[in-house]
């Protein structure tokens, strides 16, 4: 007879011939949710769908996550852990290099998942995995001459730029090999023929995302340096 221990570390519901499954814990649920995210997107990522993928009953997940937002928090945290894994901090980086490299890395990490930016946006880290890098980044900035307030404002602004940029980018291209219907630049130009500048701007908005992201980062770094008078 199938049994399930939803309050413990293992779940054996639905297994054949008493075969033992991997423990059902926060890490396994988050990993499964991230894999499923690429298939169904954020809208289709329900606790019921995740439970089905894990071959458990939905209530089993509530022992680990009180609601979907709690799960999204853990997913965002796991995305961050994967992003920094194996990438050592470079104490010799300038503040410009740190700002550029950290935001490039963040964008790459978000693009690895369908709706990755939407999952990350507004989520709360479930542990202190980010604290070491945050501390080191603030050290790089303050040693370069920024006050702590200026360092926070500069890094937060660039972070929000990257989150917003990738959110819009994934609205057009959910994954690298996909493009949503309705974002044909030529068709857009035809529909907006009476507004030639706006029509021509389509290529600057909906194509060549890599180059445009880098241009935005360059604008930010120049603006930060000019605003705070730090080279």
The number of distinct β-strands equals: 0
Calculate the terminal CA-CA distance, rounded to whole Å.
70 Å
In one word, what is the shape?
flat
Helicity, in percent? 55-70%
**Mean of residue pLDDT?**
89
Figure out the total of helices. 11
Beta-strand residue fraction:
under 5%
Uncertain ranges = 1-19
What is the string of SSEs from the N terminus onward? Answer: HHHHHHHHHHH
The class by helix and strand makeup works out as mainly alpha
- What summary fits the major beta sheet? none
How would you describe the overall organization of this protein?
61% of the residues lie in helices and 0% in strands. It has helices at 26-44, 47-54, 68-84, 95-111, 116-120, 131-143, 148-172, 185-191, 196-200, 202-206, 209-228. The radius of gyration is 22 Å and the shape is flat. Residues 1-19 have low confidence and may be disordered.
